[in-house]
Amino acid sequence: MSTDDTTDTAAASSTESKCGTSSTDTSSESDCGAASDSSSASNCGASASDGEKEVGATVEDFEGDPGRLLAVGLGPGEPEGMTARAKAALADAEHIVGYTTYIDLLPDDITDDADDIYSTPMCGEVSRTEEAIDRALAGNDVAIVGSGDPNVYALAGLALEILESKGGTASAVDFEVVPGVPAAQSCGARLGAPLVNDTVSVSLSDHLTPMEDIESRLHAVAGEGFTIAIYNPWSRKRRENFQRCCEILLEHRDPETPVGIVHGASREDEATRITDLGTLPELGEEDIVDMTTTIVVGNEETYVWDGRMVTPRGYETKYDY
Amino acid sequence: MSTDDTTDTAAASSTESKCGTSSTDTSSESDCGAASDSSSASNCGASASDGEKEVGATVEDFEGDPGRLLAVGLGPGEPEGMTARAKAALADAEHIVGYTTYIDLLPDDITDDADDIYSTPMCGEVSRTEEAIDRALAGNDVAIVGSGDPNVYALAGLALEILESKGGTASAVDFEVVPGVPAAQSCGARLGAPLVNDTVSVSLSDHLTPMEDIESRLHAVAGEGFTIAIYNPWSRKRRENFQRCCEILLEHRDPETPVGIVHGASREDEATRITDLGTLPELGEEDIVDMTTTIVVGNEETYVWDGRMVTPRGYETKYDY
Fold first, then answer.
1. What's the pTM value of the predicted model, to 2 decimals?
2. Contact B85 A80 (CB under 8 A)
3. If you ran DSSP here, which 8-state letter would residue A275 be given?
4. Lower CB density within 10 Å: C or N end of chain B?
5. Mind listing the domains of chain B with CATH numbers?
6. Residue A139 · residue A66 · CB < 8 Å
7. Is B126 in Cβ contact with A185 (below 8 Å)?
8. What's the distance, CA B104 to chain centroid?
């Protein structure tokens, strides 16, 4: 899910590790503007690449057999939102690596049990993933964690890319992805039944994807009957992306189209609002829309009933009820 | 996820219930052609509407306070794929309602604990959902279960629509959706990291959605950089939808585009194959593509490495590794 607020800039817990490289110095990462969300590191472009270590270690630097590497999805954040399989995978892991906010969400019985926890603040995705892989190559069983699902704007792909760049193989570390509930569905659940039929997820973060591509995708899906989950809708440096997205949606969809906003799901400041597309642009500067927000846009069938978004699947066209 | 094969035509367990209506006679539903998948009931159109009871009970038929109604997502099917929250919700439920295959997947400690289990074979979505709601209106705490997530080609929306048609409210039954891991992500996990960036789910079932709409949606997303999860890709009566989908994808995407196929996830006959778009059309008549299959189509960046699909998010354009 879209993540965190600006308060989490604590330095990473830098710990000893059974690892060919030295422990990562993450002090440069805490300077990198915590306003961006970790999944896109959109404000971190410049400073992160300054602070990012180049890949030093490759498979040749390690002796002995590698351990396992798992990418584990935590779901929305509360412990009960994790699958039993995710919980078991974390219990088995010797080292757990992740963004500080997600590490902090882990239950004590899991963190107490691990040999080592390696956490970094925002803007550390590449170095954090490299560190996780180095630790696995060094022989540890490592779990790299994130909220939601590892295949949804998360690090499963990056882990495989970095493994390859280090001369490793996925098979050698028995690489496995342990899925979790993505933000589209955990936020959708809080809104009622807004998704239901063909649906699309689009991220408004243009750190890694050009804005023209994002706009093209928005046009394509807004003109069709997709329900749309918008990830990373806003940050201080991306206000215009949010406004542009609203404009594009309004070119194709009725201003009365229901829109659900879920801010800070699973956090103390969680807030949910159901509004409409015509109202959405003005909410960009309200607290409810920030980097912890997921927005769900209905299709032309979606309506609001008893405080919930409902997207019919089409049963009403075929059945009597 | 896309569901089941043709072998599950056992009659529903029809049981006594604390309910204003009589127990549902489901014998007509077991005639309705089990080849279709439950989430779309595509072969069930005619016989199901013949066999479907009209909504008899409304809120006025019940006395006393309603119980709770939860729509619970089970994830891919194995017990450890369920979230802790889903497990707790089922443990709390007095009545559990669902398609027979999913009920059979529930661990014994959950089913033994429930006061009543109501299951129906395929083609019973509407009557099954009505039954679940009647039982909640009658005062029972009811959980209606499905694989994956209740907001993904599942029954969360239908439950709200039927509640409204019965004159009830979501608030009165404290309606709640308990999310689960959708098939796109649980199958994606089995393929490696195929999704990663903006992604879309499209169902090829045209029972409730006109095929021309499905084709229009496929064109729209195939021409953009979305990774695509295809649900309900095939059934005996929908072979041409699969072929049409392949044609549309090939109009826009390279024949070498990686495609992952996951058949029967979590079942004994689970099978995974990574192939390409050019090969996909000929697989429609192979066992690996049926109604239990989810297909994941890569975008132009996706590649196959060490037996896994990898879709880069774009880090390689900004970082050295």
1. 0.85
2. yes
3. E
4. C
5. 3-181 (3.40.1010.10), 184-310 (3.30.950.10)
6. yes
7. no
8. 16
